Amino acid sequence: MLHALAEALGIPQRLGGDPIAEDLDRHRLAGSWPPGVPSRSMQAPSPAVAAVFEPVQTATTLEETVERLGTAIRLGLLGPGARLPPERDLADQLGIARSTLRQALMSLTESGHLIATRGRGGGTFVAEAPPMSESSRIELAGGHWRDVLDYRIAVELGAVVLAAERRQPEDLARLDEQVAAMREVGDFARYRRADVFFHLGVAEAARSARLLSAMTEVQGQMGELIAHIAHPAPVLARSNDQHAQLVRLLEHRDGFAAAQLVREHLKGTEQVLAGLMP
Predict the structure, then answer these.
(1) One domain, residues 203 and 174
(2) What is the three-class DSSP state of 144?
(3) pLDDT for the residue numbered 227
(4) Of 124, 45, 54, which is closest to residue 88 (Cα–Cα)?
(5) Could you give the CA distance from residue 69 to residue 78 in angstroms, rounded to a whole number?
(6) Residue 123 contacts by C-beta under 8 Å, 6 or more apart in sequence?
(7) Residue 15: predicted pLDDT
């Protein structure tokens, strides 16, 4: 095949080496390029290659710690009044310096997520009414909402397929508990918390630590998007009916039907946000 390509390009073949590579090297060194052969500089990069050269946005250890704890509080994983582990233990668990942890806790205290008390029985606690969203972080006009929803689709569908294969009876029981909690559609804060726990429960049933981490991230970002959306009771009730149906599909280990249902479930949010776009 190489010989045929060499002949087509008019490159003389020589013994003892790769004729194409040698001829291309000669043209490269001479500052020219053989006709009919696209140079690397002329080829448009693929989206994957282009992504390599996007601006670097690496968070510092401090920023990541604040984000992780703040997200856990907003999602209700760390509920109001919950006590954080002692500083030394928490720093060891997170694998960070105690000085970094102190700065993170101070930042979350100043933002109203945490409160710190001294004396006997003191410590660091989640505030009784912490801020539950950071809607300023995702603006609809910026188009970032589409990236969040695309990421959500990938994470949710992957989680539900694995959950159908790996779920245990206790996983189904926990999901049923959240479905029952969401039947009270008059209190959206309560509904939303149960909704978060439901989707995290699906990821837990998938038995994948990385997927669970991704689902936590997705739910944190969705909380910011949902702040833009109205929540009429009939819509919430229909959404919860889909939750209940999903549990039964997981019970029967029907991953294909479960993935189809989840995709339909997610389209509602996409359509509402699309309608809000200017």
Answers:
(1) yes
(2) helix
(3) 74
(4) 124
(5) 8
(6) 83, 84, 86, 116, 117
(7) 47
90 with 222, same domain: the answer is: no
- Strand pairing report for 114-117 and 123-126: antiparallel
User: What are the residues whose beta carbons fall under 8 Å from the beta carbon of 145, sequence distance 6 or more?
Assistant: 138, 225, 273
Amino acid occupying residue 227: A
Q: Which pair of structure tokens corresponds to residue 274?
A: 């699309």
Of the candidates 126, 144, 159, which is a domain's last residue?
126
DSSP state at residue 96: -
Domain region containing 264 = 135-276
CATH number at residue 249: 1.20.120.530
Do 173 and 117 fall into the same domain?
no
Number of domains in the chain: 2
Burial class (CB in 10 A: 0-12, 13-18, 19+), 61: middle
pTM for this entry = 0.69
**Based on the domain organization, do 119 and 87 belong to the same domain?**
yes
From the number of C-beta atoms within 10 Å of its C-beta (0-12, 13-18, 19+), residue 170 rates as exposed
pLDDT < 50 regions, the chain: 2-6, 8-12, 14-15, 24, 33, 39-42, 52-53, 135-137
Residue 47 lies in a domain: no
pLDDT for 4: 46
Is residue 10 a part of any domain in this protein? no
In this structure, the chain runs to a length of 278
